[in-house]
Amino acid sequence: MNSAKKYDLEDRLIEFAIRIIELVEELPKTRAGNHKGTTR
What we know:
80% of the residues lie in helices and 0% in strands. It is built from two helices and no strands.
């Protein structure tokens, strides 16, 4: 794997993680929302 692809993948994974965090923050503060926010 060349370094350009490696860094591209790393950047994409970081962006994905940020989007997941933002999504979880938007879940309702209900029991079901809390459950989905902590489930792996």
